[in-house]
């Protein structure tokens, strides 16, 4: 919050404030905000350090997406297993009643 205000009101230090915002957001795993600040910095000037931070953030976002997909896939497998077990039990019950 303070750095955002400083970046708006002090044009002389804007570059540094935006870098600290990008780095800080990456450290607390707010990758979308960090990426936004990296891009804002790169609009001001080209910098290899910020480019590496941007690449790091993109890799971390990809990891988070992969984790989310793995969790969703695992949940779908569990749900499918429970559903299959329920259907098998229902068929078994119908066969015993005949």
UniProtKB/TrEMBL annotation:
Cited SUPFAM superfamilies: TPR-like (SSF48452)
One CC-aspect GO term: peroxisomal membrane
Biological process terms in GO annotation: autophagy of mitochondrion; mitochondrial fission; mitochondrial fragmentation involved in apoptotic process; peroxisome fission
Matches recorded under InterPro entries: Fis1, Fis1_TPR_C, TPR-like_helical_dom_sf
Highest taxon, organism lineage: Eukaryota
This protein's encoding gene: Dyak\GE11291
UniProt keywords, alphabetically: Membrane, Transmembrane, Transmembrane helix
The keyword Transmembrane helix is annotated on this UniProt entry: yes
Organism of this sequence: Drosophila yakuba (Fruit fly)
Protein name: Uncharacterized protein, isoform A
Membrane-crossing residue ranges in chain numbering: 69-90
